[in-house]
């Protein structure tokens, strides 16, 4: 399905990656999740060692299925709240939904109550989930102000208690943890938190190599990923600034991490997973799709969203995607406002009809910001939160359906 693989020519890459060699035979190994931690039946071997990051409003079944068709790997769901899942919230259930051909099935959860987490995990395992990840990296003020998300790793005993609740109820399903470096540069928590997660049976630790204060600004600190590799015995998954397939090779070579997590770089570029599969298999990736081919990918994506959410919500969800898919093409800025107001999928074809379908994917768009800008923040924490770091009391999370829906709109993969 990858149009890039059909054409050859000079490498389409930023100057940073023009001379990066593709993987040599045997240079990298499959990512092994659960090895020595769960029964053999539950161990996962992931090749290439690439994971689609859980992202709110992004990694629903529609996008996961599209990415999966381009290349193998592990594709994680949007984050779902334990409380919402247990209360049968309709939106939560939809975000957690899958299809029979989604194997392995991977779900990211959020919960700060060990009882809720344990009950949720048991239910998901009964449904046939193959991998579970817990969000401990969300930097959104609504979440950290309550002591959740990226605030949790400040308290390693609390983190341990939550991971323990998941592992004890997951049986032979591997449990992983995703976190950030810390709150800010003066309060780094990732080493101690990583050791706590490993000690409670986590099968891997994913590190977004930024602090909560940095949000998505600046450059990810890949050195921190390398440091965590030195500290832990379980696999470390590196996250941050994988914009091109060659970035994944550079990250793994420089840090020794066991796999990479791809987030913003794939927004409006699901074919990136095909390129990742090619470079890890030692092949030079072909050219990215032309604008006309991207229009067809957009229409396919939009149809999947409509099938998942219904016509009205699916089209509304597609609006933001049109901006990401068309980023960098000549004339796209002049039509983007209209694309953000589409009322039907056919509107997409009508609005882009005057743009050049033969235009090649612009190199300048490879590393273009498609979501979440360059701002920084002062992280909001509960009053006195840092006074007792040994406290393992669960923070207060959303309880009512209204609170749960508000949190699920705010939460992201961190």
Shape: globular
What top-tier CATH class of the largest domain fits best? Answer: Alpha Beta
How many structural domains? Answer: 2
Q: What is the CATH topology of the largest domain? A: TIM Barrel
- Class from helix and strand fractions: alpha/beta
Q: How many individual β-strands?
A: 13
Terminal CA distance: 30 Å
Number of helices: 15
What integer value in Å does the Rg equal?
A: 21 Å
CATH-defined superfamily of the largest domain:
Aldolase class I
Low-confidence stretches: 3-7
Major β-sheet annotation = 9 strands, parallel
Helix-strand pattern, N to C? EEEHEEHHEHEHHEEEHEHEHEHHHHHH
Helix content: 25-40%
Q: State the CATH architecture of the largest domain.
A: Alpha-Beta Barrel
Beta-strand content bin = 5-15%
